[in-house]
Amino acid sequence: xxxxxxxxxxxxxxxxxxxxxxxxxxxxxxxxxxxxxxxxxxxxxxxxxxxxxxxxxxxxxxxxxxxxxxxxxxxxxxxxxxxxxxxxxxxxxxxxxxxxxxxxxxxxxxxxxxxxxxxxxxxxxxxxxxxxxxxxxxxxxxxxxxxxxxxxxxxxxxxxxxxxxxxxxxxxxxxxxxxxxxxxxxxxxxxxxxxxxx
Length: 198
Known about the structure:
- The protein is α/β, with parallel strands linked by helices.
- Helices cover 33% and strands 20% of the residues.
- The protein is built from 6 helices and 9 strands; from the N terminus they run βαβαβαββαββαββα.
- The strands form 2 sheets. The chain has a 6-stranded mixed sheet, covered by helices on one side. Strands 5-8 form a two-stranded parallel sheet.
């Protein structure tokens, strides 16, 4: 099978190659002509910055999946780990089929992750989520590639949230050590900052 891996992850690339797959890996923007010309059988997206169009996805029913580091339907879009702490929503990872929406497709697998914010930074929590989702993908890949994976619609009840990258700008000055800022310290500074705006 020829797989288009839309990711920089060498962990996933090595895993898929070791599974005997032919791999084409890119982070460049793709179009319908590209996937048809390359004879792609399956798309795996992970950390990809572009939206894969419906024009492309119509050729890949149940054969295009995305790995997202949030517990969908919470925190679709950009910076999901950051927003899970800012908005105090459940943390975790999700693997879902891709559809024409952004992080809206049917869920194949999820795993919730708990953090002790006193002992975590945004960078360390991000790394935990990255490792967790790669392990989860490896666990469910056999069912996904054989089209046997069970999936279900996302639960929208009270848990839909979506963010654009620019939305985090108002909080960036509170990250005194960048992404290595302790999360508990950041949340305390955030509460103080928001109080000053009232």
